[in-house]
Design goal:
563 residues; Rossmann fold; five-stranded parallel β-sheet; globular; disordered N terminus
Length: 563
């Protein structure tokens, strides 16, 4: 049997694990240089003879656990998180099984390094840190030959593509091709948190230029050295890419990541009913926020339909969260119009209302009748919300005065400061608890440490999309669903909230512990598979909608024994 041939599938490889009788085509140093095949010092004596590795490795055979101890030891002596990021990415390029074993076993420590907040710093320095290419780069120069480029990828069974054009990376703005760090990081989480096989993951950056002058002036910048191209050329390139991805990888899910607001909404609404595609900044953020709201209401009591929400930020995340909240409220019996009247947006010009002119199209559904209000504080005074949700990308906007007003209005105010990275969070966990007398139900986008206040320890929730997108992707991959629907994200949110234990809620937590994320993802996949069946988007049968079968499908990074 061949490793890369048709005789054995990647799914079979992930299932048979250490009992595999697969013989890799490569021998000698080629095995050691292939991160999928490489086991380093864990190759057995027999494998070293069989694969031509004798003498290419130190003589002692070590277990994966021994190797992991060395990794953790090296991480512990690195001077900062950026150096730890570089070390882990280098490990991923050498030995993917060991990389994922380490990340899975130490997710709470590793996730802030391989993703937010450290990945933002890595993206800013991407060209200067560049050592080895990973993923695919598609530029304007490639128009008309994207299918050919996709065929250059060495693995044919790609199930998840994460793609960005680098224009709105986290809260850092336009980073051009340096945004590649985001798809790489997201796909690492698909594998670590949901068991999508590494060879089924493909990171892609679309390069249409950058408006970041510091990058254009940098002689080491790796992308096209001109300002961003927009209009017909941009649309034609993205359309060609989405069509080519479906053709070359028939079962692929495309996740849009960190596109500018207008492009994100245009691509999502233009293709969501034509391709297996979603936008994580719109739908993933919405779903994880809704999960946190569901949990918050279990703590404070009350119905979703009785809440009033004010959003600081009216872009992808703000509108996406408002949309899914409305969908959930409609299920509780409200009309769509009634539900929307419980969601109010505040942007850089003040309250979004019908008296304003030249509103962007995506804001129109939430432009309610109201006099123009300039500030968030005044908006809170007038609308008296039960929850404020920050998705503005502007740090410190939930001031002491804002938080105190929310505490005056509510016994347990819901305060979600979701902007990334930590420096852009609308308030810190400490401020949220301090200025509400410890009564806030708080969540942030990037992690904050527990807060000690008046003899009690508060555990801030992290409304991280990792609770949602890996499980949704796993469900789509497992069921081979042909589309991703809004109901899938609604059910994913319910699943996450159900997974929060009574003990966790007693501590003020509104999301389950990260150490349980693979179980959370498996249960989301089960819910997504069921939705796909109900909506006629899969050929899977009822007998296959089983948690044990989904867990069996998930990749686990044990070493394969090469016979």
């Amino acid at each position: 049997m061949l490793w890369f041939g048709n005789e054995i599938t990647l799914r079979q490889i992930s299932i048979v694990k250490a009992k595999s009788v697969v013989v890799p085509m490569q021998r000698g140093v080629k095995v050691l240089h292939d991160p999928v095949l490489n086991k380093g010092t864990a190759f057995t004596e027999e494998e070293r003879d069989r694969l031509g590795l004798r003498g290419l490795l130190p003589p002692r055979v070590l277990t994966q656990d021994h190797q992991k101890k060395r990794v953790l030891e090296n991480l512990s002596v690195k001077p900062n998180d950026l150096e730890r990021y570089i070390y882990l990415v280098s490990l991923q390029d050498r030995n993917e099984s060991l990389f994922y074993r380490t990340v899975i076993d130490h997710l709470e420590e590793c996730m802030p390094i391989i993703y937010t907040p450290t990945v933002g710093k890595a993206c800013q320095s991407y060209g200067h840190l560049f050592r080895q290419s990973r993923g695919l780069y598609i530029s304007l120069h490639d128009k008309g030959r994207i299918r050919q480029i996709l065929h250059n990828w060495p693995y044919q069974n790609v199930r998840v593509i994460v793609v960005t054009d680098g224009e709105r990376i986290l809260g850092l703005g336009d980073l051009g091709v340096y945004g590649m760090g985001i798809p790489i990081g997201k796909l690492s989480l698909y594998t670590a948190c949901a068991g999508i096989h590494p060879t089924q993951c493909l990171p892609i950056v679309i390069d249409v230029g950058t408006n970041n002058k510091s990058l254009l002036d940098d002689e080491l910048y790796l992308g096209l050295q001109h300002e961003r191209v927009r209009g017909d050329q941009y649309e034609e390139l993205l359309t060609e890419f989405i069509h080519a991805a479906q053709e070359v990888f028939p079962d692929v899910l495309v996740q849009l990541e960190d596109f500018a607001t207008d492009n994100a909404f245009t691509l999502l609404h233009g293709f969501k009913d034509k391709a297996c595609l979603f936008d994580d900044d719109i739908q993933g953020t919405a779903s994880v926020a809704l999960a946190g709201i569901f949990s918050a209401l279990k703590i404070k009591g009350g119905k979703l339909a009785d809440q009033r929400f004010v959003f600081l930020g009216a872009g992808e995340a703000g509108v996406g969260i408002a949309d899914i909240l409305c969908e959930a409220m409609v299920e509780e019996g409200l009309s769509l119009e009634e539900a929307r009247l419980r969601c109010w947006l505040v942007d850089s010009r003040g309250l979004v209302c019908d008296s304003r002119e030249n509103l962007a199209h995506h804001k129109m559904a939430y432009a309610h009748p109201h006099v123009l209000v300039d500030t968030l504080e005044e908006t809170i005074d007038l609308l008296q919300p039960t929850a404020i949700i920050g998705v503005s990308g502007q740090g410190g906007k939930f001031t002491k005065e804002v938080l105190e007003k929310m505490a005056q209005l509510n016994e347990q105010p819901i305060i979600f400061a979701l902007s990334n990275p930590t420096s852009n969070s609308e308030c810190s966990a400490e401020d949220a608890y301090l200025h509400t007398g410890g009564r806030a139900i708080f969540a942030s986008g990037s992690p904050f440490n527990p807060v000690d206040l008046n003899g009690r320890t508060y555990y801030p929730g992290q409304g991280n999309n990792v609770y949602i997108f890996p499980g949704v992707g796993l469900g789509v991959a497992y069921s081979k669903a042909t589309r991703v629907t809004d109901k899938m994200f609604l059910e994913a949110a319910r699943t996450v909230s159900h997974m929060v234990s009574k003990e966790e809620m007693a501590q003020g937590r509104i999301y389950p512990a990260l150490k349980r994320i693979r179980d959370v993802s498996a249960r989301i996949a089960e819910a997504v598979t069921r939705v796909a069946m109900e909506e006629g988007l899969t050929r899977i049968t009822e007998s296959d909608v089983h948690l044990d079968k989904i867990r069996d499908y998930m990749y686990s990074p044990e070493y394969t024994e090469y016979m």
